[in-house]
Amino acid sequence: MTTTENKTMDICEIKSYLPHRYPLLLVDRVISYEEGKTITAIKNVTVNEEFFNGHFPHKPVMPGVLMIEAMAQTAALLSFKTMNLKPDENSVVYFVGIDGARFKRPVGPGDQLRMDVEILRNARGIWKYKAVGTVDGQVAVEAELMCTIRSATDASQPAAGQ
User: Fold this and answer.
1) Model pLDDT for residues 67-125, shown as the tens digit of each residue
2) Which CATH number is correct for 11-154, 3.10.129.10, 3.30.460.10, 3.30.1330.50, 3.40.50.1000?
3) Contacts for 29-34 with beta carbons within 8 Å, 24 or more apart?
4) Nearest-CA neighbor of 42 among 116, 95, 107?
5) Which UniProt keywords apply (predicted)?
6) What's the pTM value of the predicted model, to 2 decimals?
7) pLDDT tens, 132-146?
8) What gap in Å lies between CA 79 and CA 91, rounded to an integer?
9) I need a labelling partner for 66 at 20 to 30 A (CA). Which of 44, 84, 131, 147 fits?
10) Of residues 37, 2, 21, 17, the one with CA closest to residue 120
11) Where in the chain are the domains?
């Protein structure tokens, strides 16, 4: 009989893997993950978010680009856990592509954005993921994301395969 350990990450552990800080740290908690496969994380969206001051004052909506960024941060956590690697201050995760992004419903104050990310492949240093963000079980955003992990000193060089 096998038991599956429910692996989680609190905000302190998340901050040890991601260089992002307020206002751009967009993952509050990891609910579960399985190295090499999937991760589920949440972003609690509050009216106090900086972006709501201008997007839009009369009807606050989380910008789509920030929903994509939140899913990418979730994907980066999965990649680091999969590689059993803790990034140093010289590690940077870059987008190399976003395909099929679709925004299905607005996300606003009081919502909890649940991000489910699955690794589709990792080849030549390029990670590809399927990412879906939901609110109350309804799809809010979905996309295929491609990222690479680079040294900040190599950041001006093209990504592998380019």
Assistant:
1) 999 999 999 999 999 999 999 888 888 999 999 999 999 999 999 999 999 999 999 99
2) 3.10.129.10
3) 30/74, 30/77, 31/114, 32/6, 32/7, 32/8, 33/7, 33/8, 33/9, 33/77, 33/78, 33/81, 34/7
4) 116
5) Cytoplasm, Lipid A biosynthesis, Lipid biosynthesis, Lipid metabolism, Lyase
6) 0.91
7) 999 999 999 999 999
8) 13
9) 84
10) 37
11) 11-154
Q: How far is CA 45 from the centre of its chain?
A: 15
Structure tokens at 100: 């099929």
Specify the residue for token string 């307020």. 22
- Tokens 């979905």 belong to residue: 142
Give me the catalytic one of 15, 20, 29, 55: 55
